[in-house]
Amino acid sequence: MSKNLWGSRFKKGLHSTIKCFSYSLYVDSELFEAEIKVNRAHARMLARVGLITAREGRRLVSALAVIGRKFAVKDPHKNPLVTHFKGVEDVHTFVQIQLEKKVGALAKKIHTGRSRNDLVVTSTLVYLKDKLPLVGQRIARLQKVLVDFAAKAGNTVIPGLTHVKGAQPVLMAHHLLAYVGMLERDRARLGDALGRMDTLPLGAAALAGSGLSLNPRLVARELGFKRVCENSLDSVSDRDFLVETLSALSILWMHLSRLAEDFILWNSEPFDFVLLDDSVATGSSLMPQKKNPDVFELVRGRAGAVFGRLLSVLTMLKGLPLAYNRDLQEDKPALFDAIHKTELALEALGLAVSRAELAKGVGRWSGDDDFIYAVDLLEYLVERGVAFREAHERVGRLVRSAAEKALRLSELSLQEFRRFSSEFDNKVYDLFDPEASVRRKKTPGSTNPKEVARWLRYWKRKLGTGL
After folding, report:
1. Residue 19: what pLDDT?
2. Domains in the chain: ranges and CATH
3. Distance between CA 68 and CA 227 in Å, rounded?
């Protein structure tokens, strides 16, 4: 029984150090289920075109099904392929060896008309066609959690920030729904990537195609691909589909990191907007009082690791001549790691947010710094006929005057207001109210409670939250 899919040209076996350096089963075993699917489809096609008999095709398909069930990964922490078959070069060789155990010499026909080059790309694409929709579902679940939290926040007003400084009052729900929209685009990007990778490479062989009478369209139909490859060199040598996947995941992680940072701020003492459940927080080995937002900090930290995976693949690809080069073996560690981190992060974030509660401090901020109502003052003057730039300049000087006197704006006398504009009257004091501030917003997509409620209803329907 052959231990490799190559080697008859060689007099010497591969040195143990080189085996350790180049063997990849510990990584590409992730492709096992996809590999079984691809092999079964290929066997059926070989029988249909007459390169093997119908009986041989049935034997191969049946044996592959048994192998698939036997070595299916039931526990993600215990991979039977890696645990028991460390001396096997890769997942393709593993399947070949197991097939030879089942059907003997017939197994040697399974590789008819193909190379590991087109096989590994096909298996990776099948893996992604199965995996990315599941990632999309996890994103949708996190969206639902955020919509739920937004509904729980109701008309709670918080200070919106620019430059991490108080800017204008906004509804907390409005803030949360901003992330729901970002995550929706992330889901769409993964869907777009799936559409562009919907091309079957099998049939490209090593680089030039095959002289055998194969019918890749039969394989494409069984595996759910819309198209077959247009250029064999392109099919086996490029990994732009993988770069696009890592790019989409990196953008997703950028959004997850920003969401995590907001919850870290909201959970900190200066903000005191949210409380974390004990089950999603950790403590300090020294300071007994600490309750740390580790889930959110780990998301923020691991975003950099995912970005690095994208950069590593781009760097690997940038200098490769056509067609296949062994450098391409390094694409899968990057892909699998990014997907595993993403799945776990989405689950952990969803759990942490779903168990968070509004803190009492969320309603105490409004009297601390009423400079946050400066835009309300500006628009107050604009509505009374003052030119925008002039109104901006007057309110700016008004704020400076209050700051120099260590007063809040609402503590200034009407006479003081009128020093800067005669348009001010007693109604100016009505502006220093967070709920009134958000209600004054009129533009579509604003933080006006009616507008936020409209979008909350939209997301509930779209995501099926049933809230």
Report:
1. 67
2. 16-112 (1.10.275.10), 117-154+172-211+230-362 (1.20.200.10), 370-463 (1.10.40.30)
3. 26
